[in-house]
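Saturday, quiet lab. Running sequence design on the structure tokens for the scaffold JK sent over.
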């Protein structure tokens, strides 16, 4: 089992969510987050005055997937979220040792599919 954490542009959330739903992903957690990487500041104007935001709004997807689906889910996220510009996002992949569905007591891959 793998845990995928994808931090993406806010406007890409509906497209990525629908693509994952079509793939049969049983569940996901989506959070509003802020941060920066290479793209340090966003320069905008507010009431005619320049304003620099150093923390940019992003969406964070957290998804548990079976090992057999990991590559296809990563590819689906990339296809749905990529614009080819800085700030498209990043995907972190980590191992999950065990998972337990609290309602059904299913363990492992059965706990989230």
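Result came back. Writing it out in full:
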């Amino acid at each position: 089992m793998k845990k995928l954490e994808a931090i993406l542009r806010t406007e890409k959330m509906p497209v990525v969510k629908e693509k994952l739903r079509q793939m049969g992903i049983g569940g996901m957690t989506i959070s509003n987050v802020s941060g920066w990487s290479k793209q340090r500041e966003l320069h905008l104007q507010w009431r005619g005055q320049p304003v620099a935001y150093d923390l940019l709004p992003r969406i964070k997807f957290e998804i548990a997937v079976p090992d057999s689906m990991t590559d296809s889910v990563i590819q689906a996220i990339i296809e749905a979220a990529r614009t080819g510009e800085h700030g498209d996002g990043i995907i972190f992949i980590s191992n999950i040792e065990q998972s337990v569905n609290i309602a059904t007591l299913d363990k492992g891959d059965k706990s989230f599919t």
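Notes for JK: The chain is about 20% helix and 35% strand. The longest strand covers residues 56-65. Ask whether to fix the surface positions before the next round.
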